[in-house]
Amino acid sequence: METENQKTDILIIGGGPAGLAAAIYSAWLGLKTVVLEAGIVGGRAWLAPKIENFPGFEFGVKGSDLVEKMRLQALRFHAEIAESEEIVGLDLKNECKHVVSRKQSYEADAVIIATGTQRRKLLVAGETDFVGRGVSYCVTCDGPFFRNATVAVVGNGEEAAIDALFMADLANQVLLVSEQQDLNFEGTLMERLRNKPNIEIVNGQVERIVGDEAVRAIVILEFGSKRELERNVKGIFVSLGGVPLTAIVKNAGVATDAGGCLVVDRQQKTNLEGVFAAGDCTCGGMQVITAVGEGAMAAMRASAYVRKVKI
Hints:
With 311 residues, the protein is α/β, with parallel strands linked by helices. 24% of the residues lie in helices and 28% in strands. The protein contains 7 helices and 16 strands. It has helices at residues 17-28, 63-76, 139-142, 158-168, 189-194, 247-251, 288-309; strands spanning 5-13, 33-36, 80-82, 87-91, 97-101, 105-113, 117-119, 135-136, 150-154, 173-178, 199-211, 215-222, 228-232, 235-238, 242-244, 275-277. Strands 1, 2, 3, 4, 5, 6 and 16 form a 7-stranded mixed β-sheet that branches. Helix 4 (158-168) links the parallel strand 9 (150-154) and strand 10 (173-178). Helix 1 runs parallel beside helix 2 and helix 1 runs parallel beside helix 7. It is elongated, with a radius of gyration of 21 Å.
């Protein structure tokens, strides 16, 4: 069956905070706007039990409530939003951009990429079950919920060390669980870790995460003794880094850096004319507020570009 072609001024790939902010701005500016989201609108922000640092919400706001307000605002300005519509083909090098999803194909004057990132997972029993109930991939987002508790930070790189130091100022005790037997960080990171009396480095592999309504403990296979250790923790922060969801975009000719992050200028422009990017896929602030700001900037610049090419 042939796919139906749909023409739009601006097509936004990704329906997280960056994509929704872009949709609000471009639709508010009077341009026909379509948002395609491969999963559910809101992305990882939808899972956040509480976002306490977003301006305008004195006592914080649930991630799902925030993105729902953004979705409704975009719809009020007549943006179209499609969930569960995965992109399978992109042609971005010509003046008219062609985007193909599993459901239909689109033609757009400008494209905004807001695909976010996928955090690397532990891939152990219990991890998925307790996301948002003790398992987190962002210490700056969720760390304050675990003040005066015992937590684990799992990872091998500098990100894990920095996250452990961050949590050491909030939690009673921090277990830094590393699969590397000899941790070695550049600069003063290792010294700072050792100087924190409430950080304990555990060399081992996470076997599983256990709990009831929320996380209760982490089970670790210790390298030295080859025995299983069950340590009681309230929170587990997985600090293995993130992978930008940009493979298909990169194949379409959009420039990325060594880490796979989309390269943009201060106006969120990529190397391709009429193609912009915003949010975590650019590896900027990696916060909801910065994603929203980048999305707004991308939409304003994309709108100006569309009006220019239509003259």
